[in-house]
Here is the input.
Amino acid sequence: MRRGNSSSAACYHPYLNAVLPRSETYRSRPSPFFLILFFLCFVFSPCAFPADSNSLDDSVRQLADRIAAIPNLHGPLRLEFHADANLAAGSTLQDTLRQELEKRRLSITDEPSALLLKIGVAETPTQVVLTASTRIGDRDDVRIVTMARAALSAPTLAVAPVRIARQLIYESSDRILDASALGNAAEGGLTVLLDRNADLFALRLDSAGIVKQTVSLAAANLRATRDPRGELTDRGATAEVVLPGKICEFTWAAGEEPKCRAKKPEARTPTVLTSPCDASNWKLEAKGDDWSSPDLLQIAPDSATRAGSTALFNEFPGPVLSINGELDPGSALIVARNLRTGNYEVYKITLLCGN
Amino acid sequence: MRFTKSLCSAAISAALLFFLASTPASAAKRPRYGGTLRVELLTSTFSLDPREWKSSSLSAREDEKLASLVYDRLVTLDDYGRFQPALAIEWSHDAAAKNWQFKLRPNVKFSDGTPLTPADVVTALQSVLPTHLQLTAAENSLSIRSPHPIPDLLEQLASGPHFIFRALPDDTLLGTGPFYVAEIDAAAPYEANPLATKPARLKFRANEQSWAGRPFLDAIEVTLGEPPLRQLFDLQVGKADVVEVAPDLVRKARQDNLRVWSSAPNTLLALRFDDSQPASADDHLREALALSLDRDTMANVLLQKQAEPSAALLPNWLSGYAFLFESPMNLERAREIRSSLPANEAGGTEPLRLHVDAAGDLMKLLAERVAVNARQANLSVQLALHTASATGAAASVPSTNPPMGLHLFTWHYDSLSPRAELDALLKQLHLVPAPENSQPLIDPEQRFAEERRLLEERRVIPLVLLPEYVGIATPVRNWMPARWGEWRLADVWLEKGETAPSAPAGGASPDNSATPHGRGAHP
Here is the structure.
């Protein structure tokens, strides 16, 4: 039985709580004191107080268990759902609960005369609260199961229309500033530049999104800012990061500190994709002027090569923060913030031919 | 010193501007540094000292907004249920959640340039956390020990008065936050028109040393004590960028195409029985009154659909189970119960006296509706309106007045922990917890059972829940407040060229006497 109000993990460490898989090569490490405490938390804890579930499906199963254990409860039951708007869309949740209850020999019906079982799904600031209430005799029996809201996974995002293929390839709760395709195309990976707790890191990921290497950019010695910026270019064995007033270069293999020097920043050239159909050029541009609202990516024909064509638009779930199409003329990497989940996401946009 | 500071800030701004200009135009527009955000608030008094705040009052709500500009917390909560590091960068607790450890962020400085120490954190938190918690400072960390499990400690630390500050010998408080208090102008008569009062003003300036980076805005100017209509007018004519919109003006603001943001309903309006009038002790009388109340009319007609009826003490967005509480109007049953009561109980020469604990037309309207509803159930309710100044705090009733059996009060939810909020309600309203619930109500089922018990006692009768409404000017960007009402002005920026001209310095103004009484946090 797992229930109660424990929205937080036993330990929080910025490295341990990020969505990203961990790398073995962090430059800075947590203090031994906290590592020991972390170890003790997990090894010697028979969970003295109730803990949250790990996923919504787990929580639904637990709720079904707890409903089935209500004394004198017999089916058939009539379900009535009360869900927050953003959770109501997940009709799978209702279906899962029906299936789980039926597995526990509690049949479900729409008959108005059947015993009413009210089910609530609500998001509080830190939790998702699942509630079941039914009247047995003259008393309401209530069962509550909670899970941490932070454990809710982002729903799969719809893929964009046919002319533009859009694929979510990576996401992180840390702020991603830029993404670059790996110079070695055969490897099929990705490099990202991110800000984690006011420190910059460059991450090298394999094609499955697993972090293979992390390089701290502390050597750049940047001043803290609420609008961190940077551009990352991966050249295969080496990578280059352009930061405000500085440029840092490093070798992935060597594991050495990046070498940073002062340099006047140069603007990255606007991304232009080449159509596989007729080699026409299409310019990528995001028009958003506020980070609090979704952004539209405009893919406009370059008048010199394709006059008269109309622009294509692709809506993102939040502001588009970077567009990088330096290495591949047929595709670009877009970094956007998903305002629904709060995560930073990297999309691959590819221009396709025909329908 | 001041000259060096401004020179330094100009250099930073120039560097940022340079990089801004050099960023590719293809991505979304980057934030703009600079400008002054003009904010108007209804409250005429303020306190930047969290130790002075009256828990869950409307004034504390406003104070918290101002304090969040100046101070930081150990942790913050984002919109996605994730705790984010602020002055603490790591934390952990034992299996029972009784012992907590926080590692503090290194190199954090107060706005006067002095470093933040673990001892500062302990002193600040000790003054606002419950006394049974033991706080100890170590070299770069802090430990909190409790005799009971406190799994919701992070929720508490991320909300309410749990700011980190340093009190100077003259009682000035220093913060590490994104802004510092640069000027405080008390309310005073206009020179040109001594009959009119110039409202109090506070000016916050960007803290260049903020550990999270300088805020985008150069300054925030807060005008206190502006009446609701005046605020709306100022927003329309471009004299203000962020204003509070009273619930009865929301519809008008939207009709005028103004940008209006609303929070989750974070203020409860409710009735509380007081034993100083003997009739209040009668369970049946309380039940009859509860059954007579028409919450739908209160929310949909009096409050023009800008509020929601509530039958629970905690809102659904905080507890997750409030939808289970129902309290439908049943006049027939109310009359039936009434007929079984003595005629002089809430009737004849002994009406139930209802005191309105907070100021404002809205409260008066609601109280009148309660009296009308009660009358429909043959209960006599007599109003006694709020007499104190508009502080939002409950006014004490002079001893010469007859005893009050009923109070209409407001309750602002200022904690992100439903457990802490229910405990605070019990404590402040002098409600007695069930004997089996003498330990903290960590389990949501226990909490639900306790709330149900309190509601069945009917010593407190919830009426409606009100959100906060904020009017926002067009140039305001990155307005991304938390749904529970935290404004997050450090991340707001102003679009260039859209700022309206500043308000004239003097002249006629509605009478809005304002008196700052809090201790400011100067650099």
